[in-house]
Amino acid sequence: MSINEHLWEFPHAMTLKVMGATDSPIRDVVVAVLTEHAPEFDPASDVHVTPSSKGNFVSVNAKVVMQHRAQVEAIYAALNASPHVKVVF
Questions:
Q1: Strands (DSSP E) along 1-89, which ranges?
Q2: Which residues face 59 on adjacent strands?
Q3: Residue 11 bridge partners (DSSP)
């Protein structure tokens, strides 16, 4: 992911939406990546999981405060590298 840093103000609070198959460990993947790259991330209060209408997928919404551009890029790269992640918004 390439971001236009001049369009962002850091620190920047955002909610990542990550989609994965219902039978995958998608929540665990998101929590592991964010815990590694965002030390202030709290999985107990900052993660919400919602199943899709047909039940085939789940959406993991995670609130995180990004501190700098490199952190944003590292998180997106790690999430996109996981075979369990279908889409990151």
A1: 12-21, 47-51, 57-66, 85-88
A2: 19, 50
A3: none
Q: Please tell me what DSSP assigns to residue 61.
A: E
Closest residue by Cα to residue 26 from 81, 78, 74, 82? 82
Place of tokens 């996109």: 80
**Which tens digits make up the pLDDT trace of 40-87?**
999 999 999 999 999 999 999 999 999 999 999 999 999 999 999 999
What would the DSSP string read from start to end of 20-55?
Answer: EETTS-HHHHHHHHHHHH-TT--HHHHEEEEE-TTS
CA distance 32 to 10: 23
Phi and psi of 66, rounded to 5°? -85, 135
Residue 18, amino acid: V
The first and second tokens of residue 47, run together, are 């993660």
pTM to 2 decimals?
0.91
Nearest to 16 by CA among 69, 67, 87: 87
